[in-house]
Design brief:
The structure holds two protein chains of two kinds. Chain A is 10% helix and 31% strand. In chain A, helix 1 runs parallel beside helix 4 and helix 4 runs parallel beside helix 6. By secondary structure, chain A is mainly beta. Chain A is elongated and about 130 Å long. In chain B, strands 1, 2, 3, 4, 5, 6, 7, 8 and 9 form a nine-stranded antiparallel beta sheet that branches. The longest helix of chain B has 24 residues. Chain B is globular. At the A-B interface, helix 2, strand 9, helix 3 and helix 4 of A face strand 2, strand 6, strand 9 and strand 10 of B. Strand 9 of chain A pairs antiparallel with strand 10 of chain B.
Chain lengths: 722, 212
């Protein structure tokens, strides 16, 4: 049943003199002004002709000039949004209009998400919904529960995915219902969570069409301890198993033709039961953007779980208003109409962020998965700045809000001129075995540290992973905090009285709270048991740090000259990257007698004088490389060439210069045996024998020449003085 | 009241307040539920204990057509079993008189034989947690395996009792190995995990995920 039941709207004179069908801004021609009355707002908005949906990129800066003729509120869009419920979508407005507005509408004159595909992994997607159907893409859609190409939900029990899809990408400007954040983005439905599922099914969904589905929205996860139905409420500890871990990593690093699929996950709704999104291995992962919820008063929603892996927050329910979005058509779903005003949770916050990312990618398709994170971290707004949970520094983080409230306009503006960040690097993992009992009911607990050496100076942290292993009969008693060298604290595990499960077995906690810090220095982990009774053992921990290394450079230029027959030793030098380095020669032959090892040491005794050019590559632990051509000269060893010296005469100035061949300057001359005629001297730097002899006779002596490269030669000589 | 008494009273009040505050801050701990069934260790890939429910089996029709839905609504029961709940393609079955995992496995095999097209999953629960959708897992007869990308599973698993091997879509080096029944899947996973070429091998458990 497809039925449109539009709520009453004040929507007069909203048809511009051109079609409102929203395609690309192909040939933009100003053809007139139209007056839109949307609710209480009156606007004059320039309207533009549109081309077809084919070809061309969205045109940004040539969009609308907008002037208000009525109230101060302006809808800053190139074409008047004709969706009758748009004004109820408070979450799309600017913060000057709504304290928790995501500032989305201001972006639409620039981009509306054309060409980007958002996959909605959920309990189904009602693609026949009139506000979803125009953006629905059937080819990449799939039902992983029923294993067919139709992701339609069971309308009796599964309204969730269709509401999620509407937040991200309900068709905008089509004169009905609502608008998604990205009104022209394409939506694919991936039905997955309608039934119990196994790891291979999740892996298949999250790895599905990794090039053609650019963003994957996941408003689901392990149970959040929200009491409902006949289920008891306990907190859980669950994350992706190996197939899913690999599917996420592969799609994030290789998907979207190498730029990486963007994974967005709802952070979870269990705050009232003291849950924390670091106990959800999907939301706290390195390849994921975890999204929390902000109520319409710009306060943390009462249900929105905090954690140090929280990336951003977005508006949702929890205040006086929830989110207005698509609902199953007819009487099915959350309410009796095709739309609902009661959607919310972090389920709704996540697709809002997915929609903003669609706008960013439409504006700049070259963004990598890490660029998207960098932009969101920089562009999000520090809400409640007085909250003590904010870290200091320009990229502040708060476990409640992540990097803050998303701001679509700032994010898209940054995206438009963004230069790709350098490839991701990782500092080799550091592991520590502890095997000590954790003192029961003791806030101080146990403390252990790992020091990252100065070898990684210049490494900028993005994601920190702590693999934690403890044996404990009631793991909810444990609190785990990580303190960085800069003194910033990540509360990785907070106590959970409703988690009676056993142990943390190699559990990976995540934190983005140290984003932008330097990795070098001491990282400390404190583990404390905060409840009486039940005690356990801290077994081990491993620290993994991901981020951007300073650029790897091959510092050695031309190699020092060596001499034939003299031992040669030189260590190649590199800087930046992540030490230790691995060296190899990719072109050029070493002079005979020399070898080069992987540590970059050139050693041996050259047996032939020769000049060679070597092409050398250095690889750091993170896989970065630097290549350079290096010249190496081996010269002949030094020889004293002068065989005979001229005669001298008493009382007459004598001068001659000893001749040498080979060796490396400076050459040193010395007398190592016998004696020169009285009155003559040997200049050790030039080899000149000079002076006025004072005694007649034949004088024998031994001269030694020594090259600065180490070789030497001696010769017995004589001078006759008459 | 002397000043000493006053100070003592204030101190006691302060302590009481601190205790109350602490209780409120930490909340009441959930009572740990003792396991009622035998415990097994499943490597996912890290070892994790589960309790086998000796009183439950779940039938699932993986062909989700209309016929499957009809079957799920009216599954064939055998002695010692009864349908508790039936959904679109699944039926939760209560079983009685089972005292060991081996008996349970035989009961599951009998139910599977009586219901062509159905899979018979064993039920596991997280120990200590109340039995609920959140703590419930379905032990399938499949094993997830991760190999090096160059490794050939057909060659590596030639001597292992598997029924079929298929690639896991979207996962380089990922495979799903089908065995005859859930208990065999546990054994095959343990066997495969010992092999040096195998990076991970674990029985595939189905569970309910929740929308947020």
């Amino acid at each position: 049943m497809i039925q449109t039941k539009q709520p009453g709207v004040h929507h007069q004179g909203c048809n511009p003199p051109i079609s409102l069908s929203r395609g690309r801004w192909n040939a933009i021609t100003l053809i007139g002004h139209a007056v839109f009355i949307l609710g209480i707002f009156t606007h004059v908005v320039s309207a533009y002709a549109r081309g077809s949906d084919e070809g061309g990129d969205p045109m940004g800066d040539s969009a609308a000039t907008t002037s208000s003729i009525g109230t101060a509120a302006i809808i800053q869009t190139g074409i008047g949004p004709a969706d009758p419920s748009l004004d109820q979508q408070w979450h799309l407005k600017s913060r000057s209009e709504e304290p928790a507005g995501a500032n989305v509408r201001a972006v639409w004159p620039t981009t509306e998400g054309t060409g980007i595909v958002v996959g909605i992994v959920d309990d189904g997607l009602q693609h026949t919904h009139p506000d979803l159907q125009p953006n629905y893409l059937s080819s990449p859609s799939w039902d992983f529960n029923d294993n067919d190409a139709d992701p339609s939900p069971d309308i009796a029990t599964n309204p969730h995915g269709s509401a999620v899809a509407g937040v991200a990408g309900a068709r905008g400007g089509n004169g009905i219902g609502v608008s998604g954040v990205a009104p022209l983005t394409s939506i694919a439905g991936l039905r997955l969570t309608a039934e119990p599922i196994s790891d291979d099914q999740i892996a298949a969904a999250l790895g599905h069409r990794r090039d053609s589905i650019h963003i994957l929205n996941n408003s689901w996860g392990p149970p959040d301890c929200v009491p409902s139905g006949d289920d008891d409420c306990t907190n859980t500890l669950a994350g992706p198993e190996p197939l899913t871990q690999l599917a996420i990593e592969t799609a994030a690093t290789q998907g979207r033709h190498g730029r990486g699929r963007i994974f967005v996950f709802a952070a979870g709704n269990g705050l009232q039961q003291q849950d924390n999104c670091n106990f959800d291995g999907y939301a706290n992962g390195r390849f994921v953007i975890a999204v929390g919820a902000l109520a319409d008063n710009a306060q943390q929603a009462s249900y929105s779980e905090p954690c140090s892996a929280m990336f951003v927050t977005a508006p949702s329910s929890g205040g006086s208003r929830a989110i207005h979005t698509t609902d199953l058509v007819g009487s099915s779903g959350y309410g009796p109409t095709d739309y609902t005003s009661s959607f919310g949770g972090t389920s709704s916050a996540a697709p809002l962020v997915s929609g903003i990312i669609a706008l960013m990618l439409a504006e700049n398709p070259a963004l990598t998965w890490r660029d998207v994170k960098h932009i969101l971290a920089r562009s999000s707004v520090k809400v409640n700045p007085a909250d003590p949970g904010w870290t200091p520094g320009p990229i502040a983080h708060n476990e409640k809000y992540g990097f803050g409230l998303v701001d679509a306009q700032t994010a898209v503006n940054l995206a438009s001129s963004w230069t790709n960040v350098a490839s991701e690097s990782a500092i080799p993992a550091f592991s520590r075995a502890i095997h000590q009992p954790i003192p029961d009911d003791d806030v101080n607990g146990l403390l252990d540290s790992i020091t990252i050496s100065d070898a990684v100076l210049g490494f900028t942290v993005e994601h920190v992973e702590v693999e934690f292993d403890a044996t404990h009969p009631y793991r909810g008693d444990l609190e785990v905090t990580l303190t960085s060298p800069a003194g910033v604290v990540s509360r990785l595990a907070t106590i959970r009285p409703l988690d009676p499960g056993d142990n943390f077995t190699a559990w990976s906690f995540g934190s983005v709270r140290h984003w932008g810090e330097s990795a070098a220095g001491t990282w400390s982990l404190r583990v404390s048991d905060r409840a009486i009774s039940d005690s356990g053992m801290w077994n081990s921990w491993t620290l993994r740090i991901y981020g951007t290394a300073s650029q790897l450079t091959l510092a050695s230029n031309n190699l020092p000259t060596g001499e034939r027959g003299i031992a040669y030793l030189y260590e190649l030098q590199a800087g930046g990257g992540v030490a230790p380095y691995t060296w190899s020669r990719i072109r050029g032959k070493l002079p005979k007698g020399l070898t080069m090892n992987t540590a970059g040491t050139l050693t041996g005794v050259p047996t032939k004088a020769k000049t060679v050019t070597l092409t050398v590559i250095v690889t750091d632990t993170a896989g970065a490389t630097a290549i350079k051509d290096l010249s190496l000269q081996i010269v002949k060893d030094v020889k004293l060439k002068t065989k005979r010296l001229s005669r001298g005469t008493v009382g007459i100035l004598y001068s001659t210069t000893l001749q040498t061949a080979g060796g490396m300057p400076p050459i040193a001359f010395s007398l190592v045996g016998g004696a020169l005629p009285p009155g003559l001297n040997l200049d050790s730097g030039t080899g000149q024998i000079v002076g006025t002899p004072t005694v007649a006779g034949t004088f024998e002596f031994v001269v030694q020449v020594t090259s600065s490269g180490g070789s030497s030669d001696q010769k017995k000589m004589r001078i006759k003085i008459r | 009241m002397t000043s000493t008494q006053g100070m003592m009273r204030a101190t006691i009040l302060c302590l009481v307040w601190l205790m109350l505050f602490r209780v409120e801050a930490l909340g009441a701990k959930e009572i740990k539920r003792p396991p009622t069934g035998p415990l097994i260790t499943v490597h996912l890939p890290h070892p994790k204990q589960y309790e086998i429910a000796l009183d439950e089996i779940e039938l699932e029709w993986t062909d989700r057509g209309r016929t499957a839905q009809v079957h799920a609504k009216t599954p064939t029961m055998i002695v010692g079993s009864r349908v508790v709940k039936s959904e679109t393609s699944r039926a939760a079955v209560a079983v009685s008189g089972i005292t060991s995992p081996m008996d349970l496995s035989m009961m599951a095999a009998a139910l599977k034989a009586a219901n062509p097209g159905a899979e018979a999953h064993l039920i596991l629960y997280e120990p200590g947690l109340p039995r609920s959708k959140a703590s419930r897992r379905l032990l399938t007869r499949e094993v997830g395996v991760v190999l090096g990308e160059e490794d050939d599973p057909q060659r590596l698993f030639a001597d292992v009792p598997v029924e079929s091997i298929r690639s896991a879509p979207g996962v380089p080096g990922g495979y799903v190995v089908e065995t005859s029944d859930p208990m065999t899947a546990l054994n095959v996973a343990d066997l495969l995990r010992q092999r040096p070429e195998v990076r991970s091998a674990y029985p595939l458990l189905k569970r309910t995920y929740f929308t947020r």
